Amino acid sequence: xxxxxxxxxxxxxxxxxxxxxxxxxxxxxxxxxxxxxxxxxxxxxxxxxxxxxxxxxxxxxxxxxxxxxxxxxxxxxxxxxxxxxxxxxxxxxxxxxxxxxxxxxxxxxxxxxxxxxxxxxxxxxxxxxxxxxxxxxxxxxxxxxxxxxxxxxxxxxxxxxxxxxxxxxxxxxxxxxxxxxxxxxxxxxxxxxxxxxxxxxxxxxxxxxxxxxxxxxxxxxxxxxxxxxxxxxxxxxxxxxxxxxxxxxxxxxxxxxxxxxxxxxxxxxxxxxxxxxxxxxxxxxxxxxxxxxxxxxxxxxxxxxxx
Length: 307
Fold this sequence. Notes:
Strand order of the largest sheet: 4-3-5-6
CATH topology of the largest domain: Rossmann fold
CATH architecture of the largest domain: 3-Layer(aba) Sandwich
CATH superfamily of the largest domain: Nitrogenase molybdenum iron protein domain
Strand content: 5-15%
Radius of gyration: 20 Å
Shape: globular
């Protein structure tokens, strides 16, 4: 069923180019509660989230970006853009002063920031993704509001093709096998993980694993050590900065009481770049590949060939 869905999406997208390249004005309904009409192609764009910045660069809009957050680090040249503050505390005054034609927000921004910018008469569009498909669709929708529908079409179609290839490969491999339990460490002390209705949970499922955090309450729930020991995952994946100083697989294995975990006993503890698995951006496919290689190392060489 998943393979049929993916190929259907590719088929549908192949006929969507003319719509995506529609002339302005364009109207879209964003993910934060409102519809927005953009009357003219934006010439000055501000990004309030690193994932949005990545998408804007992928769309070839680097010359239109006039402001980014302090966390914008990919591509590297994004760090040279004018800073409007942090994700949580952007400077409203600086944003207004930059006179943007559109501000691209995310659910990781405070809703009060989103609402305040709208009250000030700015064009603000907000995006949120709960799974991989929604994350990819953000690229298409951002292409529409920025006048880059054709480029967005190219990126999205390529991502769906790779997603289909990886999904088919994993499905064939796990057929008749027991899927390993996986724990994803978002933060160590206290321990936080990825719950259901997140694209990290979706990535784990697509990579052929079972996310034990999916049974916890909330999208990014706190997870007790006792529960972790009881579930006893066979694969442990942590992001590099799940501790303030950064973490290593060796440090995780040496934690108090972690020695009883199946993942530790079998040397199945992995560190991944949080930016490719936690940002709904074009690099999300690289995040999926990283998860596949961690959950099913036997597929590492094969998944690396997909591009």
